[in-house]
Amino acid sequence: MRLKKQHAQYISRKITKDLINCNYIEIRKEKSSITAEIERIILEDIQKETILDEQVELLLEDQEEDIEFYKADYRQLFWMTKKRLANEYNVILNFEDRFSDISHQILDYLWEEDFIHYTVSDNKAKNVIFNAIDDFMKGFDEADTMAYEKIKNYKRKLIPGTEDYDIIFNRLYEEELVKKGLI
Predict the structure, then answer these.
(1) Structural domain of residue 75, as residue ranges?
(2) Residue 88 falls within a domain, yes or no?
(3) What global pTM score does this model have?
(4) By CB distance 3.0 to 4.6 Å, which of 14, 82, 99, 176 could disulfide with 143?
(5) β-strand 116-118 against 25-27: which pairing, if any?
(6) What is the pLDDT along the chain (183 residues), one digit of tens a residue?
């Protein structure tokens, strides 16, 4: 599952919650500052992929006539081009490897800046972060579906994309994430 900007705040809150509840990790700074730094690291990673996607789109736009002439599958060309350029833009496309890399970045930052302290192996501490990301990504889709179903059954019909719809959807989405223990 691809990380999206709107996930960053929820994932960072989940990671912070799991770090606080972990009995072998000592928290040395405020919860809000830990969450903010985790969110920043996740957003930086998402931004790298966004830049890569934009570059791939530009490359394919330049070849639009050839793509149409050969009746090539645009999505397949996009993915192949993205895979080819991923290393150049320092983007990991394998989700498990990517989540592991993000977990290492978060752990390294939090340790070096004295946000947390632990006496177990780095890998054990990193797995707290990795599992939080993995759990969120597995559960968010289900929470999204539940929120959508609830909003569909509202007496007042809401139009997707409107401010009212977004506010209510986000509230329902957060409620579902809380029910699942993801935030």
Answers:
(1) 5-130
(2) yes
(3) 0.80
(4) 176
(5) antiparallel
(6) 678 888 899 899 999 999 999 999 999 999 999 999 999 999 999 999 999 999 999 999 988 888 888 888 888 999 999 999 999 999 999 999 999 999 999 999 999 999 999 999 999 999 999 999 998 888 877 887 888 888 888 877 877 778 888 888 888 888 887 887 766
Tokens 């890569």 belong to which residue? 52
CA pseudo-torsion sign 108, 109, 114, 116 = negative
Could you give the CA distance from residue 147 to residue 153 in angstroms, rounded to a whole number?
A: 10
Q: Tell me which DSSP letter residue 116 carries.
A: E
Helix, strand, coil shares, percent, the chain, to 5? 75, 5, 25
Question: Domain for residue 30, yes or no?
Answer: yes
